Amino acid sequence: MQSVVRRLESRLVAAEADRPGALLDLAARHFERGKHVSAVTVALDAAEASSGNPSRRSQAYCIGARALMAMEANDNARDLAARAIAEAVQADDPVLEARAREVQATLLMRRGHFPLARDEYRIAGLRDRLTGSTVDMKRMTMGVANSYRQQGIVAGASGRHAHANAHLKQALRAYRTALATGESPNEDAAIAAAVSDCECRLGNFGLALIQIQRAEALLPGVDDQAVIAEVHLAMCRLHRVQGELKQAEWAGERACNAAHNANDEVLARGLLALAAVHDSQGRFERASDIESRGHDVLLSHHRALERMRAELGTIPLHATFAPQVRDIA
After folding, report:
1. H helices of the chain, where?
2. How far apart are CA 141 and CA 149, in angstroms?
3. Is 164 in a helix, a strand, or coil?
4. Is the dihedral of CA 78, 226, 127, 167 positive or negative?
């Protein structure tokens, strides 16, 4: 008991000596545990306590932006990400600038501003190059590729197939560059799954199979359940397109099992993919049940986000500092 008290006392002394650092650590822990409103509140406190220290203010704003992004409070997240970028530039800290630009790029992608998102990912990648972080460079290049792939998917959905194919081919080129940049099981598996998806959408089923097998071979070293789910989802999609419905069903079930330990959005997509397989098999009642589960998961997820966003009403998110940022509205 005395040892516990001593450890607590030492933490309190350290927190008193470095209150901004303690607040940053607490904000990061809240974010990791999914307590996003608390993460924003503490991050803003950390930014205020770090007056005169642009590096720490950038860290605080970036944590707040990530938490807001997780709640899909995208306008507020954009503002804090812009502040994080401005503070990092003032601090002349390329690592912090890269991480803040990564958040801004993700927000741009969400709004369909794909070229602008690629600009931010590329700038972030250049900053990572200065520090020699190949894993971060890989992730930024993957972000560029993801934006091309998403742009291709959107174009295909609207019937602009020539544009879709052009963007998917651009994505493949960027994914190849990402694969050649450093090594990371999580990122490499995610890239291989994304490449398989691109090849599948282009009708290159043999190449798609090679890539998804490559992704599956990497899974023993992957510790991100969302990535594992994405790999199985890509396999499910490939088998379903080729009419291999039993294999598609197995892959869909594995995707759902992995997604249960990932997040609701991935789980919902897994359930909807599995429902589509059952529908193709003529098992319409089973498909309807699973599809309903998928929609219920999404509805529950969106309601939880709405509750968190409602809590933001009491937090002063808009301070007087308002840097000039490009309009992404």
Report:
1. 2-17, 19-32, 36-49, 54-70, 74-91, 94-110, 114-131, 134-157, 161-179, 185-201, 205-218, 225-241, 245-259, 264-280, 284-311
2. 12
3. helix
4. negative
Angle at 52 between CA 47 and CA 55, to 5 degrees: 65
The angle, 0 to 180 degrees and rounded to 10, between the axes of the packed helices 284-311 and 264-280 is: 160
- Alpha carbons 119 and 218: distance in angstroms, whole number: 30
Label residue 317 by pLDDT band (50, 70, 90).
Answer: low
- Residue 60 CA, chain-centre distance (Å), reads 19
Count of Cβ atoms closer than 10 Å to residue 42 Cβ: 25
Classify residue 186 by burial, with Cβ atoms within 10 Å: 0-12, 13-18, 19+.
middle
Contacts of 198 (CB under 8 A, 6+ apart): 149, 152, 168, 169, 171, 172, 175
Read off the tokens for 240: 């379903």
What does the pLDDT look like over 18-57, one tens digit per residue?
Answer: 788 899 999 999 988 888 898 999 999 998 888 889 999 9
Which residue is it, tokens 């609207």? Answer: 158
pTM: 0.84
Pair 87, 54: CB distance under 8 Å: yes
Residue 97 CA to residue 62 CA, distance in Å, equals: 9
Q: What three-state secondary structure class fits 6?
A: helix
The residue with tokens 């809240």 is 30
Q: Where are the domains of the chain?
A: 216-310
User: What CATH number is given for 216-310 in this structure?
Assistant: 1.25.40
